[in-house]
User: Fold these one by one.
Assistant:
Number 1:
Amino acid sequence: MRDIVFIERDPYAPVRHCYAVSKILYQGKSPYQEIQVIESPEFGRMLVLDGVVQLDEKYEFMYHEYLAHVPLHAHPNPENVLIIGGGDGGTLREVLKHETVKRAVLVEIDREVIEVSKKYLPTLSVGFNDPRAIVVNEDGYKYVQDYEKEFDVIIVDSTDPVGFAQVLTTEDFFRFVFRALKDDGMFVAQTESIHYHLEMVRTVQQRLRKVFPIVDLYTSVVPIYAGYWWTYSVGSKKHPVREPVRPVKVKTKIYSEEMHRHAFLPPGFYEKLVKGEFKL
Ligand code: SAM
C-alpha cells in the first residue's frame, strides 16, 4: 500500500510540515474542533486538532517531560496540581509520576479529545485511570476563577493561542492563576517557539512580569512543532525555578537534574530576548 501524505494546516506557523501516513485511525468533529489520529511509519500515532499536529508517540516525551517535571522539581512539595488543556493525557501521566502529588485536576474544554486519546493513544492516556486524577470538562479560563490559594502548580498544556485557547495567554488569566495558586505556588505554560513566535513569547513574558515576582523561560527541542525550539514560560510566587530542589526519582527518557538546569536560557540572552534586543 502506498503512503498517504498528510499536510499540516498550522495557521500559527510560516511552514507546512508534511508527513507520510500509513493509516488514518480516527477522524471526527467535536463541538470545538476537528480531531484526527493518524499513523506515521516514522513518528508512530499522531493526534491532530484542526489540522495541527499536537503530538507524536516517538517524540512526545521531549515536550511532556519538560512541561511537567521542571516546575514539579522546582517546587518543594507539589501536592495539588492543575492542568489546563492536555486532553491527550501526556502531561497528566508525567505529573502523576510524582509521589508527592495527591490530586491532579485536568480541565480540558473538549471531552472528545480525552475519549479519542483513551482509545487510540494508550501510552499517553494511562493517567486517566489513576485515582488521583480528576477530569473536568470546562474552559480553563473560567475554571481557574473559582479558586483562591488552592494549587501548588498550575500547568497550561493548550493548543496554539488562537480561538478558545487565546484567553490562556492574557494578563487577566495570569491574575486569576496567581490568585488560584498557594503562597509558594508556580505556573508554567507552553508558549510556542523562539524562531517563529518570538513576539508571542515576549508578550507572554512581559505580561507574566506584571503579575509574578519571579518569571523565567526554559526550552526544549520538539521535532514535530513548527519552530522546534519550544518555550515554556514560568511565573512563580516564591521559589526560583532554575534548580531542581528535590532529587529526581521519576523514571524519564530525557529529564534529569542536569537537563533541568540546561533547559534555562543563560540569563544575559534571556533578558535580551524579553527586552526585544534579540531580533530575527
Ligand atoms: N501539547 C500540545 C501542543 O502544544 O500542541 C497540546 C495538546 S492538548 C491536546 C491541547 C488541548 O488544550 C486541546 O485538547 C484543547 O481542547 C485544550 N484547550 C485549549 N484551550 C482550552 C481552554 N481554554 N480550556 C481548556 N482546555 C483548552
Number 2:
Amino acid sequence: MRVIGTAGHVDHGKSTLVKHLTGIDPDRLDEEKKREMTIDLGFAWLTLPNQELVGIVDVPGHRDFIENMLAGIGGIDVAILVIAADEGIMPQTREHLAILDLLGIESGIVALTKVDLIDDPEWIELVTQDIEDFLSGTAFVDAPIIPVSAHSGTGIDSLLRSLVACLDDLPDNTNYHRPRLPIDRVFTVSGFGTVVTGTLSGGAFYVGDSVEIQPSGLAGRIRGLQSYHQTVETALPGSRVAINLSGIEKNQINRGNVVSLPGQVHPTILVDVAYRHLPDASRPLKHNAEVKFFCGAAETVARVRLLADELVQAGQESWLQLKLENPVSLNRTDRFILRFPSPEETIGGGVIVNSNPGRQWKRFQQQVIEDLQIRLEGTPAERLEQIAIGASPLKRTALQEKSGYASEELDFAIQTALDENRLIQLSDNTFIATSSLQDLSRQNTEIILDFHQQNPLRLGIPREELRSRLGLKQQFFNLFIEMQSNEFVAESGIIRQSSHEIQFSESQQRQINTLLQSMQQSPYTPPSYSNAANIVGHDVLHALIDLNHIIQIQQEVIFLQEIYVELIAGALDLIEHDGSVSVKSLRDKFGTSRKYAIALLEHTDAIGYTKRVGDERIRGHKADQFT
Ligand code: GDP
C-alpha cells in the first residue's frame, strides 16, 4: 500500500486537485471551507488506472501551518509538488521541496496547475523552464512536470499515468513485524469510541492486537481497523489506517504519539543525528540553540548540542545530539526536520543515527564521531560490532534493541559479524565483540601475572578477587575462565598461569620441614594454624594450603593432606560398619581429641560427606564423591 502527499504554496490548487482526483474534499474543517484554505492535514484515497488503491495526504501550503504539514508528510512515498502556472515558484514551493528533500522523499511529480488560466503557450514553456532550473540539484531533478487543470480536466490522465509509473519504481514496503503508526489525528466516533489515524510503517496491525501508545505507554487493544473507509481485518505497512482503540480515551492521546506493539518501541529524550543546515537558512546553527524538532507526526522543543563543529553554517552538514523536551518514539533511519521557533523558519533536518544513546556526549570527541559515522554508513556487521564493543556479553534481544534491526536483518547481521570475526558467540543467545573479548583476555593476563609477581608464595589469585577486578558477572566469568584454560589453570577456587609454581627459599624449605615433621609426629592432634604460622610464617603456610599439602578445615584446625583423607575415610568406614559415626567413635578410632573430631565432622557435614542426625552422623549426599 502506498501514500501520496501533496506539497506546494498556498492557493496553488492542491486541495482542488485532490478533490478532482478522488471525489473527496480533503478540507474537512469548517474553518477551512470558510477560508477556502487548508489549515490541517486532509486525507483521501483513489484507485489508479492500474487498479492500485492509494492514499493521499493533502497538506496545508500556508506558511502559518507548515508544522501541520510536517505531521503528515513523513510517511508518504510519492509527492505531488503543486505549482500554479500563473504564479510559478513561490516561497512555500521552495520550503516544501527543501522539506521533501530532507525527509528523503525522492520520488515525485510536479503538477503545473491552473493551466486553463493561461492562454499563452510560451508562458507555460517559460514557467516549465523555470521549474526545471529550480529542480536541478535537488532529488526531484528528474521529476516529470505535467501541466494540468482541475477545472477543465486537462492533463489529469497524464498525471495519473505518471503516478502509476512513479509507484512502480518504488521498492516494496518491507514488513519488519514492528508496526508503528505515528498518530496524525485523534477523534471519537459515537458508538465506537477512540479512533486514531496515521500512515502505518514497519509492519502490519491485526484486529484484536494488544497495542501500546508511546510515549505514555498506555495499553489498549485494536477493536477495529479501517483503510480508505473499508473495514479491514489487517492493516498493511504503507497504508493510511484508522484504528478504533479500546481501553484508551481520546484525551489520553495526542498527535505525534505512536501506536506500536507492546515493548517494541521505547521513547527517548536524547538522540544522535546526522544533520544538514539548509543552504538558504537565514543564520547558522549554534551550540545550545533551542529548536523545534519534527519527526513522524511528533513535534517537540529540543536543545542542540553541536558534537563536531563550533557552528553549523548554511549548506553545511554536521553531527548533533538533540535533547528533546518531551520523550518521542524514534527509530534509527527516521528522518526529521528542525525549525527555529522565532522567527519561525525551517532550517534543516536529517536522519536519526542513534535513537537512544542513553548519555550525553562530550563535544569534539573523535571516537564519538567515528562511532556515529559507522552507525550511519557502516555495514550491518560493522554496526553490530560497534554496538557490542565495550559492553559485556549481549543477548540477541539487546542487540536488536540497540541496532533497531528487524528479526531477519538481525539474523543476517549477526551471521556476517560472526563470519567476519567481529562477534563471538558465547551461547545460543549471547554474543560479545571479538575485540572486547581480546581486551578482556589482555586484562586478565595482566592481573594474574601481576598477582604472581606480587605474591610469589601464593599459588594463584582467588577466583572471586579476579572476577571482581575484571568486573564480570558470575555466569560470564565462569565461561570466560573456561575459555582461558589453555593458558590458565583454575582449581580449588584459585586461578594461576599454568606454568606458575611456588618457589620456596632454602630457609623457608627448612622451616617447612620442621613443620611437616611436627605434624607427622602427632598427625591426629597436629599443631594449630597459629602454631604452624609461628614456625613457617603466614605466607608460607598459606602457600602450603594453596598447594594442598596442608588442609585447613577451620580457622585453627589444619591437617596434613594425607591425614585429612585418612580421617574422612575412617569416618565413612565407621558409618559403614556401625551405621553411623559420632565424635566419640571417631576420637577413639584415631586417638585424637574431641576438638579435632568435632572440627572434622562439622567439616564433613558442611561439604556433604556426612549428615548429622542427633549426635550421630550418617552418609551425606556427597559421600560418593569421596575417593
Ligand atoms: P491549495 O491551498 O493549494 O489547496 O489551493 P486550493 O485547492 O484551495 O485552490 C486555491 C484556489 O485556486 C481555489 O479558488 C480554486 O478554485 C482555484 N483552483 C484550483 N485549481 C484550479 C485550476 O486548475 N484552475 C483554476 N482556474 N482554478 C483553480
